[in-house]
Fold TonB-dependent receptor.
Amino acid sequence: MKKALLFCTLVLLTANLSWAQTRTVTGRVTSGDEPDGIPGVNVLVKGTSIGTATDLDGSFSLGVPADNDVLQVSFLGYLSQEIKIGNRSQITITLQPDLQTLGEVVVVGYGEQDRKTLTSAISSIRGADVANLPITSPDQLLQGRAAGVVVNTESGEPGGGMNIRIRGTTSITGNSDPLYVIDGVPIISDNLAATTFGQPVNPLADLNPADIESMEILKDASATAIYGARAANGVVLITTKRGQKGRPTVNISAYGGISKPWRSPDALRVDGPTFERLQNEARRNNWSDRYGSAEALNENGQPFVPPFPNPDQAIDTNWFDEIFQTGSIRSLDASVAGGDEKIKYFVSGNNFVQEGLVRPSNFERNSARLNLDFMVTPRLKIGTSTTYSVNTRNRALNGNAIEGALSTAFFYPSNYPIYNEDGTYYRPFWENPVAVANETDYLMRTTRLIGSIYADWEISNGLVFRSTWSIDNNLVEEDQYFNTFLAAGAALNGSAQSFVTRSNNWINENVLTYQKSFNDHSLNVLVGNTLQENQFLRTQAFGQGFPSNSFQRIESAAVKNASSTGSSWGIASFFGRVNYGFQNKYLLTVNMRADASSRFGADNRWGYFPSVAGAWRVIEEGFLQRGSTLSDLKIRASYGITGNQGGIGDFQAIGLWGGMRGGLNLGGVGQPVGPASYVDAPGIAPNQLANPNLKWETTAQFNIGIDIGLWKDRLTLTMDYYDKQTKDLLLNVPVPKSLGYSILTQNFGEMENKGVELGINSTIIARPDFTWNASFNIARNDNLVKRLAFPFTTFTRDYVRVEEGYPLNSFWVHVQEGVDPQTGDIIWDTMGDDVFNPNIHRQIFGSAIPRYVGGLTNTVNFKNFDFMVFFQFSEGNNTLNYGRFFFEHGGERTTGYSSQQLDRWQQPGDITDVPRMASKNYSADLRPSRHVEDGSFLRLKNTSLGYSLPGVVSSRVGVSRARIYVAAQNLLTWTNYTGLDPEVSTSPTNLVSGVDIAVMPQPRTYTLGLNLTF
């Protein structure tokens, strides 16, 4: 990486020809960390203007006057040297790092840069700092480690989805996921699963985290505008490992472990006898409400009879024990890297297997990677970055589904048996939890190829042309069968469905870069273009009526049906960037990108996304020289515009016709309803209104920041303030029904995100045998919907509302002020009125958006031991515990109770927020605010303890390094949330976040691992 950085700062010196007699001196400039040679080093004949710069492999050739034999060699980040040549015609020069000025190299869009010269807001995560964590996908590395990045795990299911927001949510119904770029290639991060089975899968789980060298999170417009239309939500740059010159290095890493729920579900349930007592109490209270007292007779002269006269004799079925299992995890990773002056290579393979907490969920990944760089000539280099993976998932119907295995385990009364006397599943109403866990057949197989080839041509010193061709090819196959032991299958005598989804993404990028330094000036100019095309195709088949559960292929079904769908989109782009520096203290960056998308109408197809940024390195000023305390001081500011086209259909701007059959329209969103055919004959009909005015969502962002280094950068601080204003939101707006449609996608609405970020890194102790490094980050984001066509509600029972003047993810409930100590009834907030009206007195109460998020990491190395501990936190966010809606009133004996019911009101004088027991109908129940809980948490996310064998010991067995370690994930969690896990996001959409419908919790994982280097 550093070599590429050094090349990015290539200085071209103009050599004056001398008529005096000269001799040719050739050589190479290297360093300890760049043994292959340093490109762009200034080599100057002392006392003259004769000079040159080293090429890609650090070589140079220079005409030196006969009467002068001293060369001056200099480059940013290294100590300058004067070399006396003498009579030599060949020379090798080794530069030493200048620890005072050598900065961290970070990856930026289409290049690399020294962090000290950045004008942008970028957070970095090194792969070495998060190696050997028991994680499934690279995006899990972002949790709590980058300021301003909010990461929620949508489910603890193996391979489950992640919800990532960089500096807030910028769209309401559009896509707010960041753009992922792997080794310069933007990839498709859409969830391609046809059936979510309660929770979406994670498309980034196809990638092996062990292959990652670094991750950069581009946050402000100066950093992201170079990616234009796809960068409104931020950009995550993933750089994978590459080979270096030297003998082959073989690395083998393996770990294995077990997992359990971090919080036992048993703490949330009541046993069978307690359930029956609570039911008796609920029915007694209902009787009293109707007839005046529990002792009163009904209209037929009958006394109250409890539904369970002998609760002490009730059976007790622990449904959690029946469906939960001890999870397991194991990973084996092997890689070899090396190279010489011509070719460098990195090859890796990985097998990862994880068994989930709820049967039968599991995930397996087999992946391989090849990164290759080949120096064809001193000025031409070609290479490839390619990864291939095959993943399989067995999934259980789980969270975000009322009849999922985990949901029904919560809701099923604990006095129900598992089986009937004849051995069939006991199922009086909903699905039996054990039946769901045992009889669900769902297999998902993903085959993915992400590859690119590139060619770098150094046209002349400082002028480089790169052309890249890349592909992201996805094949997703899903097979699902509902057998006759499940209600969904029994009604149809077996039901099956099969999906085959293909997504192909092709990109060609061509970039020309020119770099030059002269006197006090440095210039880097970049221009390029991108052509991208994406094709999507899905074929699906359905069948019902099977001869037996042993025949699950659709060909065996009595009734079969099949269909297919497909779409495509493309983007053409032109972009440019200019970086200018004066005396290494006044820095300017200007970006411009123009994108044309096929998703919009002809008049609005092009979007233009500029940005400008400046930085002042105050530390370089004469009045503020580096001292023993202050080692760096830089002030940054930027402003720019980025765009978003995600979340809408590929042909949303044009009118569409769709297939009709059997009187049902099979087309898109907002389709007309009515007769579509005659005598079940197929036909077509319009199903989407055209909107030629549809255009990009645009986000304008202002950022100001400061970077401070103290005590030779042993303590660094980065602070940023940002203001993001998004307009022309892509929304589904209602249209008059006289048009024959219900909605039309339009640009309407505005939203803002404002926030502050702080990142601190420190080296507390730095001794040869003892180091202690710590990092801390915290960020706050305030979201506000500023303009909306109309307020609307979403999610089951309209628990979530979007309204002007409030943040997204706001909960819409009836506010509970308490419980009447005398009656046990809820005291409702009447909003100033005398009488409570549930149709009027409903209001926004909290939001799922946290006030503060962040993390704290400590890493200690003492002799051969290493220790790491990482805490993640979220404060101020609310979570809707949707399970309590069912638990806390019983629903006529159809659901169980939670342990919270033990704190209910029972007699006059009781002080509690849980009302008296009652049996009510769900649909008629109010939405009490007590179900909206504080979702704040502090989590000991990762910790590890390792020991490396002394070199004299490991070398005896032919190993250059051997390390053994133990690690734990989600070891401890502090929270007031009463559900299974405060880190929930029941849906990947922007509208429904922080809702818990019995989502599978994060596992507490213990692992034992081994690292070997040969």
In short: Residues 1-20, 661-678 have pLDDT under 50 and may be disordered. The chain has two domains: 2-101, 138-243+324-338+348-654+690-772+781-858+876-945+962-1013. The chain has nine helices and 52 strands. The first strand starts at residue 22 and ends at 31.
